[in-house]
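Fold it.
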Amino acid sequence: MDIDFSKITPCGGDCRSCEHFGAECEGCLKNGGKCVHMWENGCKIFACCEKHNVKFCGLCGEFPCDYVKTNITKWDSGAIERLERLGTEYRKRESEFSEQCKKLWKQIGAHGVMVLSTCAENRVTSRSMSVVVIDGKFYCQTDENYLKYKQLMRNENAALCFKNFSIEGKCRSIGKPADNDFFIKAMKKYFLPAYMTYSNLDVERVLEITPTLIYSWSYELTKPYMEYWDFENLTYRKEYK
C-alpha cells in the first residue's frame, strides 16, 4: 500500500483532498484539530487520539468504539474499513522498520556532542549540545532564556548533526531536569560536569526531539551510498550514488 502516513489524519482521512485545504485551512494536523469545514472548535476525534497516544483511530485498542461508529460513518461510510486497513499496514511497517532501526541505534549510540539547529522568524542558528539518546528520542538541556529555546517554542522543527548522521525532528520542552529522572540518570552517567554545573538551575529545561527522518552518508569500498530512515512513514531505503 502506497500510503503517506505523515498526512493521515486521526479519523483516517487526508486533509489535502478537501476543497477548503490551502488558502482557507492548513488541515487539522497543522491546526491542532481545527477544521474550517467541520471542526472550528476542535475535533473530538483528534483530541481522543491524542489522549490515547495514537496517530489515528485504527491504532487504538478501543477501535472501533461507539463514538467512531456513530460519528465518522455519518460523513464517511467506509471509514471503519479504511481505518482497519490503515492500522494493519501501519503495524506491518512498524514491525519491519523496528528491525531496520537496530543497526541505526547501535551506530548512533546512547550519547554524544551533537550540533543542534533551530529556526524562527527567518533566522537559523546552530550550536553544540550534550545529547543523550533514550528509547529512540534525543534529549538535551538548555536555559529557557537562550535563543535556541525561544526559537523552538515558536517553531518545533529542529535538526541534529552527529558523526555522519543528519537527524530531523520535532522538539518540545518537557520541564526541568529535576522533573525527569530518566534524563538526570543519563546526564550523570555520560555528562557529569554538565549535570553538576547546569541541571539544578531553575531556568534549565529539558528538550525532547522525536525524529521524523534520519539519513546518513557512507561508503562500500569506494562506492558512496545514502541510507534513509523515515519515522513518519516507517520506511527504510538505501540509495547508491
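The chain has seven helices and eight strands.
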